[in-house]
Specification:
27% of the residues lie in helices and 24% in strands. The chain has 2 domains: 167 residues, Rossmann fold, CATH 3.40.50.620; 118 residues, 3-Layer(aba) Sandwich (Rossmann fold), CATH 3.40.50.1220. The structure holds flavin-adenine dinucleotide. Belongs to the ETF alpha-subunit/FixB family.
Length: 320
Amino acid sequence: MAEVLVYVDHVDGAVRKPTLELLTLARRIGEPVAVALGGGAAETAATLAEHGAVKVLTHEAAEYAEYLVVPKVDALQAAVEAVSPAAVLVPSSAEGKEIAARLALRIGSGIITDAVDLEAGDSGPVATQSVFAASYTTKSRVSKGTPVITVKPNSAAVEAAPAAGAVEALSVTFSAQATGTKVTGRTPRESTGRPELTEAAIVVSGGRGVNGAENFAIIEALADQLGAAVGASRAAVDAGWYPHTNQVGQTGKSVSPQLYIASGISGAIQHRAGMQTSKTIVAINKDAEAPIFELVDYGVVGDLFDVVPQLTEEIKTRKG
Ligand code: FAD
């Protein structure tokens, strides 16, 4: 069976969820071989094996933390040359997309970015993408070289699929460009204790209807009952009520959670572009004619200041 390389996104050995989702998709195409780089790479092996990695190629070197993405591209290229995989899967983070694009260029392959699904095809893996502000769904495959595909978080379930996960050291020679851009400092973002917006299974968003920074507390309270991330429309961000890092939409982040709850958001095309691929969409809006109701699975016509706190209380009661 063909092997499929999966680039492992991890923090000091703790594997991030989008990588486990990639393993689920990789198993549809062939046997997943994970590539884990940098400090803690070997510690990722047990988790990766539990989720289907037949092999884990590791390489630890200070360069991965000290320089930007080129050392990682060098290592992935070495893995491609060692394994001759059927495809290379990379999480669709900003860094993942940069690594994937550079890798595709290096190995002379085509690339597909932001896939939301992946299946085996007669002539190689077929990726599904959501395009033109989610108005169309396209299916495509790479016709040149080893397909390099980045996949958006929440595109597949995390599945237990125990496999050998044998750890093998990857031999990597860094290129002359590897040390070209040095990382001079890292500032950890203040932790809210909530999941990362693009990776969250549930997102609760607020818009202009929230009517003030202080009122976002009711959006956060609902999010915290659900273990969700908080999103915001551009109107709310432009008004200074919530940080731009939380903006959902064309000029913000693109999310694809299991559940998206929009409160006081009208549903402009630019907002839809960032959330329309959510599996279940719920909207709370006092205007029954708001365009958001055209795309929802469940709509509540009502004042968010009544509905959201009631919803939060109800969830709290049911959780006991
Ligand atoms: P509004 O459109 O003003 O809607 C507010 C809604 O809240 C209304 O439907 C109203 O009925 C409802 N409401 C008011 N009070 C209550 C209440 N008490 N209870 C319940 N409902 C209530 N927008 C984004 O979101 N993300 C982007 O990335 C983005 N990028 C853009 C890029 C470009 C180039 C452009 C031109 C625009 C972009 N926009 C983006 C802006 C977008 O066009 C809309 O202006 C924006 O999404 C509107 O935000 P909103 O829905 O919160 O506000």
